[in-house]
Design brief:
Helix content is 53%, strand content 12%. By secondary structure, the protein is α+β, with helices and mostly antiparallel strands. It folds into 3 domains: 378 residues, no CATH class; 99 residues, no CATH class; 127 residues, Maltose phosphorylase, domain 3, CATH 2.60.420. The longest helix is centred in the middle third of the chain and has 42 residues. The chain is globular. The two termini are 49 Å apart.
């Protein structure tokens, strides 16, 4: 026992000795200068971004949605529901967001919150994850570029520049995409890291056949974190495949990529397969800005490129200069990694031009009909960061930094000085962000009138709340903030009220119909079960609204509503094939006489064709709801009618809604405007409607976990081991036969 212990201690001591030697050898003036070059921008960003964690204020961008999804996921987990697929009730008449949206970044926050035992509130955990993802990004860039065989200088300069990009909110890697005053692209923070790591893994897998398991898992994590960037990585992998391909290595390269892709698809089937099967119930908005779908065109984007606005908007084009130097150095020196980065940059730049420039060529891209070409700026920035690194390395070479410590210091100082305007501009951007955050928080905290109305709403029976729209007086409810910031219709979502408000992502089939809400018509309030209105004091509103409370700044009204469920008549039953055709029909219903007469339309959707199936079904004028209970993912009613009729539940329809009448399962169907319909027999009935996860979701998730376990424990030499096992089995079989024959 003593000898064994001595061997263990001796081996550990030897490892420590080798580690010390490696650290001593690695700590050269050149490496110290490069480390400082990376550390200074990181430290500046760590300071500039700190208010994103320390100032807890309601978000004004898409992070409102992300925080809401995280809170709903945490609540679903606490209720014992399927955290992979649950109902999000607060926006757009409800929607099962995780069935259609990449959710690993959100579930990771929930898991971290549980690991911390709730000692930090979940909103702060969310902001902390965002903060660390932004501050630590240069380390991911450096590691990935080194794995792709860029020299140390190129990796260090690329890393130092990676957090200094600046655009005019173009959805790229600049921090305008992520901060409170920006766009709130939380999942893209994960995609930035994973895209670089995946690209490095693919590089080594295709060229050297190493890292197969690692690359497969990273690709799977990217799929679960950001589908569009996973798509972009597939395109980049295709470029890697043909990069240096020849007759001798073609089949091997194809097999490696196909194997990694197949494993990634198997690990993530629980997300993408249910999405494909039920994608018809996700909205295709007709109001999407054309440039998001088609991008901006070659003339505009090339103007941005040569004007420095793809990397240095609003400041001296310092990164654009390094990018130009990198392009020249790559063309002259033709280093393999640099040439690939330049080709990748050109490919993504051309794709970023969009549909107008590409014309029929755009149709060659798989799934092109759903692609948002303006997001391809992410591919441009991935490649640009690497080419900028090459430019920095060229500056070091031009100054012959390798010849002496003095020249090393001079080269590092030259790059640092070049980056100073970018660092200063980013800090100014972040300081203004922090100022606006503090001003917004102070204004909301000081608004005791709004706080009192929120407290009152929590004591009232459940129902949707309306606080205006962007197109009307909703813009007046701005908490007195002197710049465009949080409005009441956004803030009340963060307070977890069911809202009729301007949509965020607009994934629900009902999302875009909210733009047509007419707050002068009583039937519109009843249509959406809008029971409460918060409006500015002094605003003239219709007389059918009843004043519940008046404060110095606001008035809280009660609106007429028959409840979250209601007996209705059906004008007819129609088949509709696509969401594009469904929307104008639902819009005509919302703006027509149907809500007033309580005469709806039953939709068979999605159907093979478009036609009227059957005629009118009478309603129930004397029908009543004697009991109503509204929960996040469940509704209970006691409904009574002397004749058979249709009960509509004013929540977005989805086939995962399950209904029971007096304990017996019944069919649900879609009625206008994309609500839940149930056919009830005559008499009084106890009705329950509950959202249930897609049945195949959990089995596929378990399958993915098992597959992940197999991938993790599989040995690198598994094929050789399997061949040896097969040889032994063959030997045993022959031996057994010979003995039997004897």
């Amino acid at each position: 026992m003593s000898a064994a212990r001595s061997r263990i201690i001796g081996a550990a001591s030897e490892r420590l000795r080798l580690l010390r030697l490696a650290l001593v050898d690695g700590f050269t003036p050149r490496n110290a200068a490069l480390a400082l070059l990376v550390a200074v921008p990181m430290a500046a960003q760590a300071i500039g971004l700190l208010p994103e964690v320390t100032v807890p204020v309601a978000n004004v961008n898409d992070d409102t949605e992300h925080a809401l999804y995280i809170e709903n996921a945490s609540d679903a987990l606490a209720r014992g529901e399927n955290v992979l697929d649950f109902w999000v009730p607060e926006m757009d008449e409800g929607f099962p967001q995780f069935l259609y949206y990449q959710n690993l970044p959100h579930l990771s926050v929930v898991a971290l919150h549980r690991i911390l035992l709730g000692t930090i509130d979940i909103f702060t955990v969310f902001n902390l994850v965002r903060y660390l993802g932004l501050v630590l990004f240069p380390l991911t860039v450096f590691w990935s570029m080194r794995r792709m065989e860029f020299d140390t200088v190129a990796a260090a300069v690329g890393a130092s520049a990676s957090t200094l990009l600046a655009t005019n909110f173009l959805y790229g890697f600049d921090f305008g995409s992520y901060l409170w005053r920006g766009l709130g692209l939380y999942t893209q923070i994960w995609a930035m890291h994973l895209s670089f790591v995946a690209l490095a893994g693919l590089w080594r897998l295709v060229r050297y056949g190493t890292g197969f398991r690692w690359t497969s898992v990273v690709l799977a994590v990217l799929v679960l974190s950001h589908l569009l960037y996973a798509y972009m990585m597939v395109v980049s992998a295709a470029l890697l495949l043909v990069w240096g391909i020849n007759q001798a290595n073609a089949l091997v390269r194809i097999a490696r990529l196909a194997g990694a892709g197949a494993i990634a698809l198997a690990l993530t089937a629980w997300m993408w397969l249910p999405y494909i099967l039920e994608r018809g119930f996700q909205n295709a908005s007709p109001y999407l800005q054309p440039e998001k779908y088609a991008s901006f065109g070659a003339p505009t984007i090339l103007g941005w490129l040569f004007g420095g606005e793809l990397t240095d908007y609003g400041r001296l084009p310092v990164l654009a200069v390094l990018l130009a130097i990198g392009v020249i150095a790559t063309i002259r020196l033709r280093a393999t990694s640099a040439v690939f980065a330049l080709v990748l940059f050109v490919v993504w730049l051309v794709l970023y031009f969009g549909r107008g420039t590409l014309g029929p060529l755009a149709s060659l891209l798989p799934l092109q009909e759903t692609l948002l070409f303006h997001r391809f700026i992410g591919g441009v920035h991935i490649a640009a960061i690497m080419v900028i690194g090459v430019g920095g390395s060229a500056v070091f070479a031009l100054l012959r930094a390798q010849e002496s410590r003095t020249r090393t210091a001079l080269a590092a100082a030259a790059i640092a000085i070049l980056l100073v305007p970018a660092i200063k501009e980013r800090l100014d951007f972040e300081n203004l962000n922090a100022l606006w955050m503090r001003q917004t928080k102070s204004a909301i905290d000081a608004d005791t009138d709004m706080a009192s109305l929120i407290s009152a709403l929590r004591e009232l029976p459940a129902g949707r709340v309306y606080a205006g729209l962007r197109s009307n007086w909703g813009e007046q409810l701005d908490f007195g903030i002197p710049f465009r910031s949080v409005h009441a219709y956004q803030y009340l979502v963060t307070e977890r009220f069911r809202m009729l408000a301007p949509p965020y992502g607009g994934a629900s089939l009902n999302s875009d119909l909210q733009f047509d809400f007419n707050d002068q018509t009583a039937a519109q309030y009843d249509l959406y079960n809008v029971r409460y209105v918060i409006a500015p004091r002094g605003l003239a509103l219709p007389g059918f609204l009843q004043v519940l409370r008046t404060t110095t700044r606001y008035v809280l009204y009660a609106a007429p509503s028959s409840g979250h469920g209601e007996y209705v008549a059906l004008a007819d039953r129609e088949e509709v094939s696509t969401a594009t055709k469904l929307f104008p029909r639902n819009r005509a219903f919302v703006n027509g006489a149907g809500p007033t007469s309580r005469t709806y339309i039953r939709w068979d959707y999605p159907a093979a064709g478009d036609r009227v199936v059957s005629g009118e079904v009478s309603g129930c004028a004397s029908g009543t709801l004697r009991y109503e209970r509204i929960q996040a993912n469940r509704f209970d009613f006691i409904a009574s009618c002397p004749n058979a009729a249709t009960l509509v539940v004013k929540e977005t329809y989805h086939p995962n809604w399950r209904a029971t009448v007096d304990g017996q399962a019944v069919e649900t169907f879609m009625v206008s405007p994309s609500f839940i319909g149930i056919a009830l027999p005559a008499g009084a009935h106890f009705v329950t409607v509950e959202y249930r996860s897609t049945p195949i979701k959990t089995p596929l998730f378990v399958f993915g976990l098992v597959a992940l376990g197999i991938v993790v424990v599989a040995r690198r030499d598994l094929p050789d081991r399997l061949r040896r096992v097969r040889a032994r089995l063959e030997t045993w079989r022959r031996t057994a036969r010979s003995r039997i024959g004897a």
